[in-house]
Write a structure and sequence with these properties.
single chain; mainly beta; Maltoporin, Chain A; 35 strands
């Protein structure tokens, strides 16, 4: 008992308990796997705490449906990374905990934090986390997250009509043996995400875009539809040092389940003809009701060897993955002159084997790395990187088969069976990173991408494969300059898609932030106060089809360039971080509103506040 009490506290000569971010450290499993035993302090900074992009698990720039927690896809081009069989439904992925990137803790005392955000128009995010060490070498923790929101179109009272129900859980543990030869990381993650589907605004025959900002008075395409996604994942990684850092054996295990449901209890039809569907192309199995369900399961084991020295790192592995998908649809039939429903089912199974590895050499400012993964007789993912001081170059190629949803769909509203060829994506990238003096930072990246046999969703919301190549290139600039307590941060992305007919990306994306940062009240209060501007240039953004959870091509609706302006105040008071923000303060000044996705308007002006409160005992 005395030993436990001694471990649980750190006490100075005045008997004060000294718990702080210095005694609560975090680490990541991939760092340990690669021999980097980096225990970092937890993040207590104010930076971007007010920014909506940083409220979720993925901070990239996304196109969404105009509100928090809605279906989304990356705006800027991203290289595909996963090869082999995959379900292809990722519209809610940024809101789920990623089992492979969870941070683990090493705490000298129990650590907890509460993260809460509340917006004027119903935006709400909450996360509670608790972690503690059972012994000096064994830590456990758990986190719980919820999100809710109120719809802003097609209702009379915004405060009483929710469109979002989100719950996410992660439980995690890390153990290291007394001799330091064995590490075990394990976690469980869960997602339950439900989104009420509107199908976007239903415009009148003479409406222009500027006429579609009546919000509560607008009609919507769908009235009783909803999407729901469940995810469960068990993840395990253990590492054993067979010959010190020079040779380590490792094994990872993942069991994943994803269930996607799409339901509509009142399939809409036009007012002049009950035979004509309003939003869907067809109703194949049931004329009045839709209940589509997909169940995807995946079991994966990886066995590998890895090692590192001061100038090198290597990894080689074998991966075995078994997958199964089940399709369920509701079919109508007549019994005793009554329309009833029954479930039809079908399924597919897949067994896959991969081999892969990585080899990296670094000496001083120079680094060379090659890595690859190969699915037997089908897909592969290879890349090479070279770095010398501030300069870095990278070349990558991914050949991968279409996703399951691109190959097959069985639904009340869409049915297809495709036999597409594998697509090939090549990327050439160069980056320059450095400081200009003491107060200025710059990172400039240029890239060229070529996609052969590109698979996309066409204007009918159905998958298709391009015959010619899709070529796009561009550059991204990150810049930060400081003038005393005044900071100016910029991110600018340029993308040229003139030779990429089936890819829609705005030519320019700009995100700029100007703020004052300093200490007040004898350094008791650390603050940031500033303004942030975000805009994209005009482009024909992807439309969204909720039945398939896919963003697809559309022609004719131009998402116009619009400057979105926020004012924020961030404050750090010891273990409490607080922010106040007035988002979209320029509403109505240059236009009645803006669209993020065709027929889905962006959020109106909203006052938002948030806190992150950390407890170290």
């Amino acid at each position: 008992m005395a030993g436990t009490d001694a471990f649980a506290q750190i006490i100075d000569d005045t008997t004060r308990v000294l718990y702080s971010p210095k005694t609560t450290l975090r680490l990541y499993e991939n760092d340990v796997l690669e021999g980097r035993y980096l225990q970092q302090r937890i993040d207590t900074s104010l930076h971007n705490i007010h920014n909506e992009r940083f409220w979720y698990q993925d901070t990239a720039y996304y196109q969404h449906l105009g509100n928090i927690g809605t279906a989304s896809r990356p705006i800027l081009f991203q290289m595909p990374n996963k090869i082999g069989v995959r379900i292809g439904k990722n519209a809610f992925e940024r809101y789920a905990y990623n089992p492979e990137t969870i941070n683990y803790y090493d705490t000298r005392s129990p650590y907890s934090h509460i993260y809460y955000i509340q917006g004027q128009r119903g935006e709400q995010v909450f996360e509670g986390t608790h972690a503690r060490n059972i012994t000096p070498r064994w830590n456990i923790g758990v986190a719980y997250q919820i999100m809710t929101g109120n719809r802003q179109i097609g209702v009379s009272n915004l405060r009483r009509d929710g469109y979002l129900s989100h719950q996410a859980v992660k439980a995690f543990t890390h153990y290291r043996s007394e001799n330091g030869k064995y590490d075990l990381f394990a976690n469980y993650t869960h997602l339950n995400h439900e989104q009420i589907e509107f199908g976007g605004i239903l415009p009148g025959p003479d409406d222009t875009q500027d006429d579609l900002f009546r919000y509560q008075a607008e009609l919507t395409n769908l009235s009783q539809a909803a999407s729901r996604e469940f995810r469960n994942n068990y993840h395990l990684l253990h590492i054993y040092k067979l010959a010190g850092e020079g040779m380590k054996l490792y094994h990872s295990f993942d069991w994943r389940r994803q269930r996607d449901l799409y339901q509509d209890d009142a399939i809409p039809r036009t007012a002049d003809s009950l035979r004509t569907l309003l939003f869907y192309p067809e109703a194949t199995f049931h004329p009045t009701q839709t209940d589509d369900r997909n169940f995807y399961r995946e079991l994966q084991n990886v066995f590998g060897v890895t090692g590192n020295s001061k100038i090198s790192f290597y990894k080689a592995y074998v991966k075995q993955r078994n997958s199964k998908i089940e399709y369920n649809v509701l079919e109508a039939f007549v019994l005793n002159d009554t329309l009833r429903g029954r479930t039809l089912s079908d399924s597919d199974r897949f067994n896959q084997l991969f081999v892969g590895g990585q080899l990296r050499f670094n000496y001083g400012p120079a680094l060379v790395s090659v890595d690859g993964e190969f699915q037997m007789t089908r897909d592969y993912n290879v890349s090479a990187t070279a770095k010398l001081g501030p300069l870095q170059g990278r070349v990558a190629r991914v050949l991968r088969s279409p996703s399951l949803i691109e190959q097959r769909m069985w639904s009340n509203h869409f049915t297809w069976g495709n036999n597409f060829n594998n697509s090939v994506t090549d990327r050439l990238e160069g980056t320059l990173t450095g400081k200009l003096g003491e107060k200025q930072f710059v990172r400039l990246t240029g890239h060229y991408n070529n996609i052969k046999r590109h698979v996309y969703f066409n204007t009918n919301a159905e998958p298709a494969q391009a015959v010619g190549n899709q070529q796009l290139y561009g550059a991204e600039l990150q810049h930060h300059i400081q003038f005393g307590p005044v900071h100016f941060e910029n991110f600018v992305a340029y993308t040229n898609t003139d030779k990429a007919e089936f890819i829609r990306i705005p030519e320019w994306l700009v995100d700029s932030k100007l703020y004052f940062q300093g200490n007040l009240f004898k350094r008791a209060l650390h603050t940031q106060f500033g303004v942030q501007l975000y805009l994209t240039t005009n482009y024909e953004a992807y439309a969204y089809m909720p039945v398939t959870q896919q963003f697809h091509l559309q022609n004719g609706f131009v998402v116009k360039s619009y400057s979105l302006l926020d004012v924020f105040l961030n404050a750090d008071i010891k273990s409490l971080n607080v922010f106040l923000k007035m988002s979209h303060i320029n509403e109505g000044l240059t236009a009645p509103g803006y669209f993020v996705t065709p027929y889905y308007p962006g959020m109106r002006t909203s006052f938002i506040f948030g806190i992150k409160w950390m407890f170290f005992d």
